[in-house]
Amino acid sequence: MEPFNPDTVRAAYDRVAQDYAAAFADDLKQLPVDRAVLDAGMRRVTAQGPLLDVGCGPAQVGAYLAERGVPVVGVDLTVGMLEVAQRRTAARLSLVCGDMRSLPVRSRSCAGATMFYSLQHVPRADITKVFGELRRVLVQGGIIVVATHLGEGELYISEFLGHHVDPVGGTLHTQEELEKALMGESFVLEEIRHRDPLPHEHQSKRVYIIARLAAG
Predict the structure, then answer these.
(1) CB–CB of 174/193 below 8 Å?
(2) Which of 30, 80, 120, 188 could form a Cys-Cys staple with 170, CB 3.0–4.6 A?
(3) Which structural domain range is residue 186 located in?
């Protein structure tokens, strides 16, 4: 199957869901930059409505936000990941299966959204579609917080956490590319940060972007 096909990505994450959670579900405890960016983004949320955790995986980000009294809806392509998230978070947040290019969420219903390390699983040509979906579901003035891998080109893996999988693609983005795509969908950039990878992570520099949906 094509490496960016949703079925390919879904099958890979279904296979590794338990091991992925064991490896990464508690990572926020050792990621002060990630926590600081999430806190900075949430301080900017002024509208009423839930926050989306897009590509939530085991819902480490969604749980972090829910623990702070924020209503959260986690969205993920993979049923296996959602099952792990459900066991980990109990009733602290709602969970729904869906593709970030066609979110199962009403238009203008969400106050904000986070997208931590999931954007890489759509092909480069689809990032405007992803940001367009976020524009659709957010209220005016809604906040998004994006974390992803900086770089150029694409990566392909066929071994994932000790499991053989059909080749899965990962898109690396330049900061300029992300900024252009966001601004093209009426987002105003408010804050940008970077960090280097930890030893157990993929060795790419990380970028964090906080943006607000413009009025009008």
Answers:
(1) no
(2) 120
(3) 6-208
113 is a domain residue? yes
CA distance 33 to 17: 25
Residue 126 sits in a domain whose CATH number is: 3.40.50.150
**Beta-strand relationship, 138-149 and 206-213:** antiparallel
CA 3 remoteness from chain centre: 19
Tokens standing for residue 26: 């508690």
- Residue 109 has φ and ψ, to the nearest 5°, of -115, -5
Structure tokens at 185: 């969908």
Give the relative orientation of helices 6-24 and 79-89 as an angle to the nearest 10 degrees.
30
Q: Which of the 8 DSSP states describes residue 78? A: -
> Which of these, 125, 137, 121, 145, lies nearest to 209 by C-alpha position?
145
What is the identity of the amino acid at 209? I
Rounded average pLDDT per 10-residue block, the chain, 216 residues: 92 93 88 96 93 95 91 95 89 90 96 96 96 97 97 92 92 97 97 91 91 88
Look at residues 23, 7, 17 and name the one whose alpha carbon lies nearest to residue 56. Answer: 17
Which two structure tokens, joined as six digits, stand for 141?
A: 């003035």
